[in-house]
Amino acid sequence: MRFTKDHEWVVVQGDVATVGITAYAAEQLGDVVFVEVPEAGKTVKQGDGLAVVESVKAASDVYAPVSGEVIEGNAELSDAPETVNALPESGGWFAKIKLANPAEVDALMDRDAYEAFLATL
Amino acid sequence: MSDQDLKKTPLFDAHVAAGARMVPFAGYSMPVQYKDGVLKEHLWTREHAGLFDVSHMGQARIRGENPAKAFEKVVSADYQGLKPGKQRYGVLLNARGGIVDDLMTARPDEDGLFVVVNGACKDNDYAIIARELAGEATVTRLEDRALLALQGPEAAAVLAAHIPEAAQMVFMDAKALIAFGVDAIISRSGYTGEDGYEISVPADAAERVWNTLLADERVKPIGLGARDSLRLEAGLPLYGHDLDETVSPIEAGLNFAVGKSRREAGDYLGATRIAKELAGELSRVRVNLKVLEGAPAREGAEIADEAGAVIGKITSGGFAPSLGYPIAIGFAPPAYAAIGTKLKVIVRGKAAAAEVVASPFVPNRYVRKL
Question: What is the interface pTM, i.e. ipTM, of the complex?
Answer without folding.
Answer: 0.82
